[in-house]
Design a protein that fits this description.
A hairpin with a 2-residue loop joins β11 (about 305-310) and β12. It contains eleven helices and twelve strands. α4 packs across α5 and α5 (about 125-140) crosses α7 (about 155-170). Helices cover about 30% and strands about 25% of the residues. The strands form two sheets. The chain has an eight-stranded mixed β-sheet, sandwiched between helices. The protein has a four-stranded antiparallel β-sheet with strand order 2-1-4-5, with helices on one face. The two termini are about 35 Å apart. By secondary structure, it is α/β, with parallel strands linked by helices. It has a single domain (about 5-230), classed as P-loop containing nucleotide triphosphate hydrolases (Rossmann fold), CATH 3.40.50.300.
């Protein structure tokens, strides 16, 4: 199946007072229509920056300094700002990490929900309100007519997240980017949000790029998973392979740190050390200082991506010879 989104060699940098920081350093992945791809890793590994790079929503001191971002064959890096505005919310929609800060606190839901229909579809206000009400019903908001006149602070966290999903899906995007969509939600609401996203994917064929540090969420949702560490790709594989036979030492460490119901242990395993300072990245493999399998070559140069079955792994353990 032809790729919907193809990211090749993406590199994103930020200019700071201390110097230039490379937050995303040469990652590659593809998303097909209707596919759910997960992007996993610790905080600060470049997951959210990747999504903002795709949508060209980086702050002023950030820039995509290398690579291609191909959406249906068009490189989004080469589009004008007006052309990119037509892509955002229409072809690619995004659910941001915190719905409380993503929704405008001084506008009621009706105003915010109607905007995508009026901007991208040319609807009148009356038609936009009817469509917005329909979307609230679709995402399971109770008493939607009443909620349309309310403000974000009057809703629970789960309801705000449902509103964000309704806004994101209002123009039937081909790709939905969900950045930590279940953060700070209780487990019941989290399960409802994931079920909602899965049902909408099945109904509309919308592809989903799911960004999270919660591997349990990816086990339930994703077909393929990209594991990132310190801005680089360390493993890319089908979800079943990641959970049944992880290849990279970092992926192994992440999985071992998750509590399991089928194991009786007194303490969880941890990954020694901390994520490196962005201004002082270690030479060679960036995971080397924390890696239990580190070899002398790991300090000398950056590992290539090696093909191991269906997986792609950046580790010298899998280099030929």
């Amino acid at each position: 199946m032809q790729s919907l989104l193809s990211v090749r060699g993406l590199e994103t940098r930020f200019a700071t007072r201390k110097g230039t920081v490379t937050a995303v350093d040469g990652i590659d992945f593809e998303i097909r229509k209707g596919e759910v791809i997960g992007i996993a890793g610790e905080s600060g590994c470049g997951k959210s920056v990747t999504s903002l790079s795709i949508l060209r929503l980086l702050p002023e001191n950030g820039e995509v300094s290398g690579g291609e971002i191909l959406m249906n064959g068009r490189d989004l890096r080469l589009l004008s700002e007006s052309e990119m505005c037509a892509v955002r919310g229409n072809e690619i929609a995004m659910i941001f990490q915190d719905p409380m800060t993503s929704l405008n606190p001084v506008l009621d839901l009706s105003t915010q929900l109607c905007e995508p229909f009026m901007v991208h579809r040319g609807f009148s206000r009356k038609d936009a309100e009817a469509k917005a009400l329909e979307m609230l019903v679709k995402v399971g908001i109770p008493s939607p007519e009443l909620r349309m006149r309310e403000y974000p602070h009057q809703l629970s966290g789960g309801m705000r997240q449902r509103v964000m999903i309704a806004m994101a899906l209002s123009c039937s995007p081909q790709l939905l980017i969900a950045d930590e969509p279940t953060t700070a939600l209780d487990v019941t609401t989290q399960a409802q949000i994931l079920d909602l996203m899965r049902d909408l994917r099945d109904e509309t064929g919308t592809a989903i790029m799911l960004i999270t540090h919660d591997l349990g969420v990816l086990a339930e949702m994703a077909e393929n998973i990209l594991v990132m560490y310190a801005g680089r790709e360390v493993e890319y594989a089908p979800a079943a392979g990641i959970f049944q036979e992880p290849k990279h030492p970092y992926t192994v460490g992440l999985l071992r740190s998750i509590p399991r119901l089928d194991e009786d242990v007194e303490s969880l395993q941890t990954i020694a050390g901390v994520v490196p300072n962005q201004y002082e990245m270690p030479a060679g493999c960036r995971f080397r200082p924390r890696c239990p399998d580190a070899m002398p070559i790991c300090a000398e140069r950056r590992p290539d991506l090696y093909r191991v079955g269906e997986a792609r792994v950046a580790c010298f353990k899998y280099a030929e010879g």
